[in-house]
Amino acid sequence: MSPSPGAVVRLEAVSKTYRSGKEALAVLKNVDLRVERGEMVAIMGSSGSGKSTLLNILGILDRYDSGAYYLDGRLIRNLGEREAARFRNRFVGFVFQAFNLLAFKTALENVALPLYYRGVGRRARTRDALEYLERVGLSGRAHHRPAELSGGERQRVAVARALVTQPELLLADEPTGALDTQTSYELMDLFEELNAAGLTVLIVTHEHDIAERAHRIVRLRDGRIEHGDPTTTDEGHPPPNGGFPPC
After folding, report:
1. Does domain 7-225 have CATH number 3.40.50.920?
2. How far is the C-alpha of 65 from the C-alpha of 46, rounded, in Å?
3. What is the pTM of this model?
4. What is the mean pLDDT for each group of 10 consecutive residues in the chain (247 residues)?
5. Is residue 227 exposed (0-12), middle (13-18) or buried (19+ Cβ within 10 Å)?
6. CA separation for the pair 180, 193 (Å, rounded)
7. Where are the domains of the chain?
């Protein structure tokens, strides 16, 4: 089946098994998933349900064994390391619970790093990094290192870094796990603003109040999707415009 032009993510019967000697552990089992352009989707599940493996496959950090994964209409399968890195840098932005910022670099340098790997010149990447720090409200902290920033500020730097390449898909892995409640809600406000501007957002979380702010919740149990019904709000999907450029 050909992928829908409206789907940023489409998984068709994707399975993944990890093997250690004669032992085999099936982590994902014939998973079907479709995420439309402009959606914000939360993925929930207990430990061992397959959330991390699913996110790694979506982010082209891990391979799957069978089935098909389409990212923005492109079949992602059996990529070499260099090609996988190129696809990640072009199509996917990552936000992690632990921020994953380089401690010896400033906020500006951390945000500019993905552009360095794209071969963008120093002046252009500095300009773009400053623009995205401003968009997440941190232009005044551009020259501070992570240790000089609060947890919420560090996560906003991580969001700016994820956005600077203008990806098609933002993957957030427990992005509020290291934040207090108020800061978590402020981060979700930012995600909603980005989503309203047209960015497709997929959040892995164990926090129900965070998940409920997505358009729909996908639940994994023992490597299978339990259900993924839309939320009962009447808001629909936000239009692809707003304060941020379409991604």
Report:
1. no
2. 23
3. 0.84
4. 67 94 90 95 91 93 95 91 88 89 95 92 95 92 95 93 92 90 91 92 93 94 74 39 35
5. exposed
6. 20
7. 7-225
